[in-house]
């Protein structure tokens, strides 16, 4: 039977592609290009298979979603958005205004590490990472629904976990936890920006509703950084924050 999935594919070939993905991802050095090709050919089938399943069931069926690059590729396939490119583009121009609007212990914490940066490149990278963590407080929302430091996340929604540190900028390990399942741990090159991209990938790929106590932050990120939102309805606090940041940019 011809599949609606991809030209030339049928139910048998799609099943082979899915099996190939599961086998390839278990290898020490999986062929990411080959997995992406099979993902391209099976995206609609996988969407249907994810319906009405728990996070544990989805990750069991599709363990490649525990790999950051493949998780981001899943979002690009299904929603037509490159989160990595969009976040870097949107965030870079807003870092300074976010710092200027911020205050409190988290700002003091991250500044102690930023001031010790060895060069301008490292400083800029730390500032971009820190800006993402400072944003929830600007909305007076719960930052522990975005990240925790050496703690168990208080919510089943996607959360960044920093380990072995008193500061997120100096973590020995960064992982992501969703529904009590820790994923993306010990991934080389994992930093805060990549972790945030993975957070959004999980929200959208798994159809998870935003928690009320972090909704304005996530909506702001979705609309102005990730470019995932197409709705004309924007919460007033999100519009106000964007106006504040824009005003600071225009006043530079």
Describe the protein in words.
This protein is α+β, with helices and mostly antiparallel strands. The chain contains eleven helices and four strands; from the N terminus they run ααααααααββββααα. It has a four-stranded mixed sheet, covered by helices on one side. A hairpin with a 2-residue loop joins strand 3 and strand 4. The longest helix has 19 residues, at 32-50. It is globular. The termini are far apart. The model has no long low-confidence stretch (mean pLDDT 91).
Tally of individual helices: 11
- Terminal CA distance reads 61 Å
> Percent of residues in beta strands?
5-15%
Biggest sheet features: 4 strands, mixed
Instruction: Give the ordered list of helices and strands.
Output: HHHHHHHHEEEEHHH
- Alpha carbon gyration radius: 19 Å
What is the residue-averaged pLDDT? 91
Could you give the order of strands across the largest sheet? 1-2-3-4
Low-confidence stretches: none
Total DSSP E strands:
4
Overall morphology: globular
Class based on secondary structure composition and strand pairing: alpha+beta
Secondary structure: helix percent: 55-70%
Outline:
This protein is of the alpha+beta class.
Task: Give a topology summary.
Elements: H1 11-25, H2 32-50, H3 55-61, H4 68-79, H5 83-92, H6 95-101, H7 105-114, H8 120-138, E1 147-149, E2 159-163, E3 173-178, E4 181-183, H9 192-205, H10 215-225, H11 236-250
